[in-house]
Amino acid sequence: MVIIMQPGAGDAEVHGVVERIQSYGMDAHISRGKERTIIGLIGDEREIDFDSIAALPGVERAIPILKPYKFVSRNVHPADTIIDVGGVKIGRELAFMAGPCSVEEEDTTLRIAQAVKDAGAQFFRGGAFKPRTSVWSFQGLREKGLEILSKVRAATGMPIVTEIMDASDIAIVGEHTDIYQVGMRNMRNYTLLVELGKVRKPVLLKRGDSSNLEEWLAAADYIVRGGNESVILCERGIRTFENYTRNTLDLNAVCGAKNECCLPVFVDPSHGTGRSEMVLPMSKAAIACGADGLLLEVHVDPKKAWSDGKQTITPEALKELIVQCRRMRQAT
Amino acid sequence: MVIIMQPGAGDAEVHGVVERIQSYGMDAHISRGKERTIIGLIGDEREIDFDSIAALPGVERAIPILKPYKFVSRNVHPADTIIDVGGVKIGRELAFMAGPCSVEEEDTTLRIAQAVKDAGAQFFRGGAFKPRTSVWSFQGLREKGLEILSKVRAATGMPIVTEIMDASDIAIVGEHTDIYQVGMRNMRNYTLLVELGKVRKPVLLKRGDSSNLEEWLAAADYIVRGGNESVILCERGIRTFENYTRNTLDLNAVCGAKNECCLPVFVDPSHGTGRSEMVLPMSKAAIACGADGLLLEVHVDPKKAWSDGKQTITPEALKELIVQCRRMRQAT
Amino acid sequence: MVIIMQPGAGDAEVHGVVERIQSYGMDAHISRGKERTIIGLIGDEREIDFDSIAALPGVERAIPILKPYKFVSRNVHPADTIIDVGGVKIGRELAFMAGPCSVEEEDTTLRIAQAVKDAGAQFFRGGAFKPRTSVWSFQGLREKGLEILSKVRAATGMPIVTEIMDASDIAIVGEHTDIYQVGMRNMRNYTLLVELGKVRKPVLLKRGDSSNLEEWLAAADYIVRGGNESVILCERGIRTFENYTRNTLDLNAVCGAKNECCLPVFVDPSHGTGRSEMVLPMSKAAIACGADGLLLEVHVDPKKAWSDGKQTITPEALKELIVQCRRMRQAT
Amino acid sequence: MVIIMQPGAGDAEVHGVVERIQSYGMDAHISRGKERTIIGLIGDEREIDFDSIAALPGVERAIPILKPYKFVSRNVHPADTIIDVGGVKIGRELAFMAGPCSVEEEDTTLRIAQAVKDAGAQFFRGGAFKPRTSVWSFQGLREKGLEILSKVRAATGMPIVTEIMDASDIAIVGEHTDIYQVGMRNMRNYTLLVELGKVRKPVLLKRGDSSNLEEWLAAADYIVRGGNESVILCERGIRTFENYTRNTLDLNAVCGAKNECCLPVFVDPSHGTGRSEMVLPMSKAAIACGADGLLLEVHVDPKKAWSDGKQTITPEALKELIVQCRRMRQAT
Fold it and tell me: What's the predicted TM-score (pTM) here?
């Protein structure tokens, strides 16, 4: 932490800051300039409250230097984390997770699953528990949906990715899924993250729509610190003033996450754009800037999808997308 | 819902949309213009998936007309909801909830409580469970903090407001609190909202930092639909590009919420600004545009507060603030 | 400026930074910590390029300390700037500028002017040059509109506020206006700001819809540095994800501007909300948190206004608004 | 335009809307539903004021259907606009515009120019007029800088791209540049856009940092309507809450612009990221999703650049970038 004193701050104020720093068992380095004094705190600032120093008399600003995460940082963990699920080495080889937004009736779901498998996807995704803005909207098939997912796995051999909405559902969802998906609304549900740190299944952690890169990586740190190192990050767009697209897909964040942390980074171009005609080009862009995989909404009949039809593509489009993305990867 | 067809859409496409609308048991009204056809859906569009229509062939845009909430709407519930807690009629008389960000050691917490009571606050607030961006930060005193809150109530008679982070904590938190506070990170934790709909204690629902007015009211609808009508809304700032303040306090939303829905609306100027010197003027502004109460961070020694010291005011400042806000209310 | 070196930065990198600082004739203070070295630059960092240091080898971050403005800062100019226009002391007494969005036909405009004067407004506002998103929209009456404004002044004695869109129009607009208004789209039109620094008429400078507080004050510094100290700031809402209102009125910024700089600060609740029913409560909130005046869209028949009818109030509503705002001011 | 009436609106209100529509010489289609009446306006709504209808009694919402632009729309102009500058067919073949942020002393500038030409760039970019947030920052070499640009063209044969900040500089800048660059701060400087519509040189129009896709295309329409069809769009990042990067590069907008309009679309990954290490991956992503070219900050010694050093790459890095982008283009 760097503490910048106000122009008029005197010895007493500087002394007060140094004393507070020392009370945490840390050291202070003082730089006296012509106009201002600057104090550097030496030690692990993550464990002390930032504001307890920013609020001291004479302090103009306190600037954090350490990141709010540790275990997922490239400094601590320089090598790429590779996560093996059903033989696919996520983080090393390109991975495609595809399926409907919501799990639907068994036969439709099985047809979609077979079709995305044939198109080249290695994982099946589909939501049984659906977080919905309005209590009046369809909330997912819930337990019945989970059972359909197990049938998909049995029928196709594809590992399953499905959303977990609450810590109390970890056991039941775990019976049917291979990867827990944490949706953007739950990125800051720390109770859930702490509990997912105790399981031994991979977690796909979507970025919150108002969370910056640091906060996203700090959320991953909650899971990894608990002992579960198998976290996959997933960028799915942030909320901005732009309304042509459902969200603003922030591919800068893919690049930044790859640079700053060791985890695989996925992209969800379906939610990131909200428009089916943009899924292909934005998928290619995601791969071009280093994404390790994609999460895609696919339906055999998008216009009959129970949710998110507007951003859903067909299995035929998925097949072409996978071909083009693999070509893109090779060119990179 | 209004469905705007693409310029070139023909009879087959229009027919497809009408058929889909009728399959939901609703009616369609067709307007054929020179350039485009517009179709109006008549019925409760909240129960059907928006995208299932937006994705149909020939559709350019589908525009929702009904709000994603119902029970909290002024249309359905024109009268102000008044919530009586410990004799204070929230929604009718001005209410002040004050205390430290985090519950601290028993003696400090009791001293703060007595001081805010003397200053004129009717409710004591303090966090035992603290949602923190970094797993390395102080996470609250948890159960021990809850017990201290009960002692505060016993000693001062003040009703308690404290944060609930997870549905599984409803019972334990309920033993010690009079009002459940849902923090901004949990506004979209629908499992929690559904469970809070089943209790018979008021809920203070903070607005998510990237949630718009409609989504905020829709979150309140989750609780009210469950049977718990005692919801207090609380604006606490949204996330924007501005970084002079911790958040951008959106007082427009206070006005909007008062117009659109029946619930009392509070403001948290501490988080809404992040700067103690701005708490007084923004409190007055909140009251001036119609807020029913304030949630304030107060500490006997802000620079020693365990968290959020920079935005915390003293009991003396609180006393003056309450005097000025009451004067402001009278002038309104 | 504070320069934070990367963890592994060695003597050569530190030396490189120091050398660069000294090449600007400034001093460097070095703090060596256990993990990192921190270098403080002592001198007026505003005159050197920030990035020329941030890009040096071994530098992790360079953090500015000085603000990008000087003359309008409270540090340099502690006293409030008071601007006398037609006998009204802006910055000391509450001022109301009211009128239609666009200047309309002469008789309508004169009727509006007389009505807002009767309602208690001291200034008449109306746009002759209209910046419009679409080239297909009405662009204002232009020169003809300016002449109508002069007639309003002659008929009512009210000083005029009207928008200037380009530096080349300063002379012609100056013949008809008492205060130049710089719209939000032009806050960063530095050519215009520099030229307005040379005139001797007040400038009302609206905040850009994506400009933060520092950038807004830095824009004012362009004008003041040129010798024109009569700048009035005007907050009119920023662009966020919220679409219930036309913009998000940022009253925090009013407070912040009053604290950081010496200039009068106005609020435009018409554009700040885009909804006529919110103009009164948000006007009161603006006054409650310290605004020095208001800019308001008023029309004798809002639904016939040539532009912005939805956010326009009637003269009767204006009269009531002025009464309530004056009462609010007294209570503050 | 679609006008949605309030639930309680009666015949008088509906009649009022219809009358207003007819007063513009347009037609109204009425749809009466169980709860609401919906009115469709048939005609070119761009020419009437939106609010004049939204403000009528009984109207809940008025929703625009037509876009605020016409000439640049794919509907009106389905074919790609191809712009030939110095033999390079912009919009058909990949184009690279590279050079320093600011034009520097003659010898440095010439060295950079030769180096970017050798690396494969076809255009030289460099700013002589620099819009700067702070009046205390370096404002560019201005006329002297323009002359250096002419020398670059003479020495290397490369066409020049340089920024125009004000309509009054069109002639002088035109003597030295082949393409006028309109910076993001001037995207809404309509006086400048109108004047650029009268020249016969291409304009590179950067997107404003708070402008959405529609507004950007509407700005282009200002130029094209004036008769200058040679407009190149350039996405350079928007302003969001994320501060890891200087801006949030919105590649969705590249895709959207290519779908909705006929103009070539460029990307500026230097400003779009603000970090030199991200320029290569984001350049590849831009090409992958369909960008027609790149605008890049390049300097022979980035750490000595007069401005923007942190986001500047070397000619060697540029060479590699061009190779990889061409490979990416082929794979697309």
Answer: 0.93
